[in-house]
Specification:
Helix content is 10%, strand content 36%. It is mainly beta. Strand 16 and strand 17 form a beta hairpin.
Length: 960
């Protein structure tokens, strides 16, 4: 056979989905038919253009000995230490000129070679058929086997199979794959993520015995009235369906009914079965459940559901969108342990094993098609492929490959057409095809604002007020839309410190039936592990266009460590409400699960004095059906003898579950029974002026400036009023938003460069008073600030009085004091207040009162990929570090770090921060809220820190 060599690359810019691939079909994890993984080390050659090399590499005898090696699955730009190019990140801009379907001449193209033998004992090529399956290739691939061109395809996050039995030989099979980074398909894949070419999911050879399974559709519904499950398995190849636990053994295509336990995300009941044909036995995992739109609500098994969800991109900091099973399992376990009950697979179907895990552990899934054309917004959606009939076959192919692959997963309850692709005839065609193919699920697409083609009214980043209006039915819109349930498919942008306002959203969701929940954007920070930067983000690889750290907006850090945002989300969405009545003796416990009673939980109760538990006891609550409440009388609390007393109740798993061990905390509540007694310092000491110092009790002050120098021998540096914080991503907001972005305004007003003018140092009979004015250069506004120091001989009390002057039109970032302590003696902190992690005015639901401790360098810092304000502990009564005990009146925010706020503000990566010899301590009377303005609304007005008169006090005691 002669082998042709060509450089025909017309298929790259062809709008069709490809050629040669078989029709899509249901995916299953395994069967008794043989399969051979072709994952592993492949030979690799990178070219700068699509036509730089001919096809000769695909033929027998080609010498690729000089080629590099890479791992498949994988992205070539994340291998080779930069030899194969670099990642590039854009939010929505196409990183090439927009001229559909044309792509740049500069088109990185990777040639992949793998030589393989059929394993010993395998059927020969004449014994049945063989399929070659690619689960994911970005963005366009052409495939040869043993010198024969078998086809090309687009649709990066979708499976493609090819019949290859007639080409196989027992040994020396040559599989050649040419992958192009850019293609016509790239215009359909403008998702907010890194552009990462390569064969990034599994490559598998499948033996197909005569009479083996082709496509099949498991229809398993549940009647909540009778408790009966109805099963029918439609199969392209006749066979039998066996479900031993239900005593089912019927032919395919036949409907059978039996009493069953239904599948839900809370109780994911699966029945093991088999589809048996003449040539194959395929294991089935059957979940009986019915999804419907009824009474204007999304109902599963007859009950409305409330989604407490996340948007999940696939990500690993070293391998990109190539994930192994244990990484996917880690995601699911983290979600379950943090009370997440739903996932939107933004913005493409995930690795199929992830859906197996959702079935097994229990998560509702919105399965989203691999489609986004967001970049066309820059030209008012002109030439948008979804409104161009030439592209409709590609859109329908993508929809079909998603639906057919994933249709047998009970976890998938809604199909989504894609994301941010405008509107057009192609989307309508997709919706019509999906509705016709699968009437057992709903169809979603946020861009369908009038819900012409969809079954759910969906929005992104609507404000609290707007969501409330929608819940009340006051949002208007078409008649159809007004009759549909509402979800926020994206909200609470979890970029950097935040998101704020989660608890306020949740109260609104739970108050209105029409509001059926929301999905936080997003699950994980897409930081790329980097030897110098720690984690890299957009622009760190020299991209021409990029969107910076907008790619780091997750509830978990790149290494999957939960962020404070995930801890807050867990508390806000907890499925059990534990609320005191204000008396300290009665608690109301409410089951807010949709399906489960509380029989799987035990309840632990204890009092604490000054933050220390006095001993836990079991609390009897009862099973409580969904929606039910019980009021329980608590035992009287101890006498705190002036110390504060709280009760705490925790709802714990009573037994081990597949996703968490016995004792795992699902929910908790807390209430103060006895408030702390006021801490008074009698001003019995008088300041004693000296030549250089003024002494007052244990304190020594600079005689000229009035600045505190020491307390009981502990050196104190630079104590003064502080109003600046290193702006968070949510403070800075997004540049395309038209609402006020206070992070930028704070800089405009100069709040990052406040000047401190000394107006007077006044020793008195019982106090040292230091008068100052704190103001930015170039502005008339200022803060008249008075520091009044008193002492009883042992303790030193500071009262700070702040009076705004001028026309303040912006809130303050923070207000409090800042000072430095020697790092060598301030490595560890202990406090009574909120913890264990950080909290801010609108992110404090998860802040539990107690005594906490942690190292300044580790536990007291939150490692946001882009450094910013972090680490504040809320509601602190007292704190100890560096030889000082500090008590506040009223409670305060407490943070400590070995760099200044200015250094934190200047840093772009964590590696920019160098620990100094001073620990800088902030004791804040107030903090501005966080919000989620990096892509959403800012903090609610109630969380603004207005420039208003304020007075607050701290009592310092040397502890050494």
């Amino acid at each position: 056979m002669s082998f042709r060599t060509t450089t025909d690359v017309g298929y790259v810019e062809d709008v069709s989905p490809g050629s040669g691939a078989l029709p899509p079909r249901a995916r299953y994890a395994g069967s008794d038919a043989r399969s051979l993984s072709l994952n592993g080390s492949w030979r690799f050659r990178l070219s700068g253009t699509a036509d730089a090399e001919d096809d000769s590499f695909a033929g027998d005898g080609y010498d690729a000995g000089g080629w590099a090696e890479i791992t498949v699955p994988g992205h070539w730009v994340l291998q080779g230490d930069g030899a194969f190019g670099a990642p590039a990140y854009t939010n929505h801009l196409y990183p090439f000129p927009v001229d559909p379907p044309r792509v740049p001449t500069e088109n990185p193209t990777g040639d992949h070679l793998r030589v393989f033998d059929l394993p010993g004992g395998w059927p020969g090529p004449s014994e049945g058929g063989f399929l070659l399956r690619f689960d994911g290739v970005e963005s366009c691939a052409r495939v040869w086997l043993n010198g024969t061109d078998i086809g090309e395809f687009k649709g990066s996050r979708l499976p493609h199979e090819f019949a290859v039995g007639h080409l196989l030989r027992p040994t020396g099979n040559v599989l050649a794959v040419r992958v192009h980074q850019w293609s016509a398909g790239s215009y359909l894949e403008d998702q907010d993520q890194w552009w990462l070419p390569g064969i990034f999911r599994d490559v598998t050879l499948l033996h197909r015995p005569a009479g083996s399974v082709l496509d099949f559709f498991v229809h398993a519904s549940y009647d909540h009235v009778t408790g009966a499950g109805t099963l029918r398995v439609d199969s392209d190849v006749d066979g039998r369906v066996i479900v031993p636990a239900l005593d089912i053994d019927v032919e395919t295509g036949r409907t059978v009914t039996a009493p069953v336990r239904p599948w839900t995300a809370e109780i994911p009941e699966l029945y093991d079965g088999e589809l048996v044909t003449a040539g194959e036995r395929v294991p089935l995992r059957i979940g009986f459940r019915t999804v419907e739109l009824a009474d204007g609500l999304i109902k599963v098994n007859g009950r409305p559901v409330l989604f407490k969800g996340v948007n999940r991109h696939e990500w690993h900091p070293e391998t990109g969108r190539t994930l192994d099973l244990e990484t996917m399992r880690a995601d699911v376990l983290l979600m379950k342990r943090h009370n997440v009950n739903a996932v939107r697979t933004s913005h493409y179907p995930p690795h199929p094993a992830f859906l197996d895990l959702c079935d097994e552990y229990g998560l509702w899934v919105i399965d989203e098609c691999d489609l986004e054309t967001h970049g066309f917004v820059e030209q008012d959606w002109r030439d948008n492929p979804v409104d161009d009939d030439r592209w409709t076959p590609a859109l329908l192919d993508r929809a079909a490959r998603m639906v057919e692959r994933d249709k047998n997963h009970p976890s998938v309850v809604i199909w989504s057409l894609g994301n941010e692709a405008g509107t057009g005839r192609g989307l309508t065609a997709m919706a019509e095809w999906i509705h016709d193919r699968d009437a057992s699920r709903l169809v979603h697409y946020e861009g369908d604002i009038d819900c012409r083609d969809t079954d759910v009214y969906s929005r992104m980043y609507a404000s609290h007020d707007e969501v409330e209006r929608i819940g009340l039915g006051q949002d208007g819109g078409t008649r159809k839309r007004r009759q549909l349930p509402f979800i926020l498919c994206e909200y609470a942008h979890a970029m950097g410190n935040g998101p704020g306002g989660l608890a306020d959203y949740q109260r609104i969701f739970e108050a209105h039936d029409r509001l059926q929940g929301a999905f936080v954007w997003e699950w994980i920070d897409h930081g790329v592990k980097h030897p110098e930067l720690g984690y890299a983000y957009g622009g760190d690889f020299g991209e021409e266009l990029h969107d910076g750290n907008f790619v780091c907006d997750g509830l978990v850090f790149p290494d999957r460590t939960p962020s404070p945002g995930l801890v807050e989300f867990k508390k806000v969405i907890e499925p059990v409400r534990i609320e005191g009545d204000g008396t300290g003796r009665t608690v109301r416990i409410t089951n807010v699960y949709d399906f489960s009673d509380l029989s799987h939980l035990s309840f632990e109760f204890f009092h604490q004095v000054d933050g220390l538990p006095t001993g836990a006891k079991e609390l009897t609550v009862g099973s409580l059906a969904p929606g039910e409440s019980a009021e329980i009388t608590l035992p009287a609390g101890p006498d705190g003898q002036g110390d504060e007393v709280q009760w705490t109740i925790r709802a714990l798993l009573a037994e081990d579950t597949p996703w968490a061990p016995r004792g795992h905390a699902v929910a908790w509540g807390q209430e103060t029974v006895v408030p702390r007694a006021p801490r008074t310092v009698t001003a019995s000491e008088a300041p004693v002026p000296g030549e250089r110092l003024i002494t007052l009790g244990p304190g020594a002050f600079d005689a000229r400036t009035g600045e505190l120098r020491t307390i009981g021998g502990v050196d104190v540096t630079g104590l003064r009023l502080d109003v600046w914080r290193a702006p968070t991503d949510n403070d800075d907001g997004a540049p395309w938003q038209d609402d006020t972005r206070y992070g930028t305004l704070w800089r405009t007003y100069g709040l990052h460069r406040m000047r401190h003018r000394l107006d007077g140092v006044e020793p008195g009979d019982d106090a040292l008073t230091v008068r100052t004015r704190v103001a930015p250069a170039g502005r008339e506004v200022g803060l008249r600030t008075v520091y009044r120091w008193t002492s009883d001989g042992t303790r030193l009390k500071l009262t700070v009085s702040v009076g705004p002057e001028g026309d303040w039109t912006v809130p303050l970032p923070r207000i409090g004091i800042r000072f430095g302590l020697a790092a060598a003696s301030a490595e560890h902190a202990r406090w009574f207040g909120g913890g264990p992690g950080e909290a801010y005015p609108d992110t404090r639901a998860a802040s539990m009162l107690g005594q906490w401790d942690g190292s300044v360098d580790e536990e007291m810092q939150t490692p946001y990929v882009r450094p910013q304000e972090n680490g504040a502990r809320a509601d602190v009564r007292w704190a100890e570090l560096g030889g000082l005990r500090i008590e506040g009146d009223p409670e305060f925010w407490f943070s400590a770090r070995r760099w200044t706020t200015e250094q934190l503000d200047a840093a772009r990566h964590l590696t920019d921060l160098t620990a100094g010899d001073t620990v800088w301590v902030n004791l804040d009377h107030g903090q501005h809220g966080i919000g989620s303005q990096s892509c959403g609304p800012g903090p609610l007005p109630r969380y603004f820190l207005g420039a208003a008169p304020a007075e607050f006090s701290f009592v310092f005691t040397a502890t050494d």
